[in-house]
Amino acid sequence: KIRVTAAVLDLAGETRVAYHELQAAEQLRELRGTVAEGMAASYEFAKRLRAAGNTRELDLSNERALYEQSKLDLATSESDVVQRREHLNELMGLWGDSLGWRIAGRLPPIPADEIPGEGLEARAVERSGDLELARREVEVAARSLGIVKPFALLQGLNTGVASEKDFDGSWSVGPSWSLPIPLFDQGQGEIGAAKARLRQGAQRYYATAVTLRARVRAAHAAVIAARERAVYIEKVVLPLREKIIEESQLQYNAMQVSAFQLLQAKRDQVEGGVQYVEALRTYWLARAKLELILSGRMPPMSQPTGDSNMNTGASSGSSRAGGH
After folding, report:
1. What is the rounded CA–CA span in Å between residue 164 and residue 176?
2. Along the chain (324 residues), what's the average pLDDT of each consecutive run of 10 residues?
3. Host H or E run for residue 163
4. Helix 188-232 crosses helix 259-294 at what angle (to 10 degrees)?
5. Best CA proximity match to 3, nearest among 138, 134, 133
6. Are 23 and 105 in contact (CB under 8 A)?
């Protein structure tokens, strides 16, 4: 029953993760489409300037390179949506006429209230199926030892039926039994093996409890870190990008900056949105992992690596010569 419950929780957790991954993929596809539209407009404007002799061939080539890269990014995003949707179909067991389902195409914002860190370890220990399974194994080993001890002296005992001929020529039939020699073999080997299994089970139980506590602390720390990053992008980076757009528009109206610079500012704003979506995705995946632990299932420990999303979009479009 414990193993079946663990399998159900694993499937539910994987499905929740796949759901958030699909939401993020659809939202990123929308943003990449916006970038591609902006790059198309920029490239078209560059072609007109070049035809009028008001720009260099190098500038036109740079604009085309950015435009072509934006199309590749959009195609990659579209393919990612298809793959993640099919993965979710597989997890939900859907096919045929059941494939027309739809989901909210955007990740939910960061909730106002967070899962409190106080008492998390106790909650995880109380609900852990992995720990319960380890405890049951200790109980089985203890019962095994209790059964072995009373019968230790009877190890190797053989019983059966025997017959023999008496002196008067008649036959007698009755039970028989035999014990191994030497008689000082009192089953020490079996008792020792049972004690070893009991000690191993107890150590596995303690090790599982220590691991569980470490996993829940790490999962909660990951949720807090992801939350802080997403909130920072939302409260600082996105408003800053919006302010740059407003200032660039004013400068463009005053003919202080070129149309290319204004388009670049708009592309940078979209890339800031990409950063925010990826930060939201990281948060909801981290939260799903923590909730899985608190529901009774312990996922594998993630290796401490650098955040691969920290610089995503930071350099994309920031240099007209560098591309996306």
Report:
1. 11
2. 86 92 92 89 86 83 89 94 94 90 86 86 85 80 61 45 59 55 56 75 82 89 94 92 85 76 81 90 93 83 48 40 39
3. strand 158-165
4. 150
5. 133
6. yes
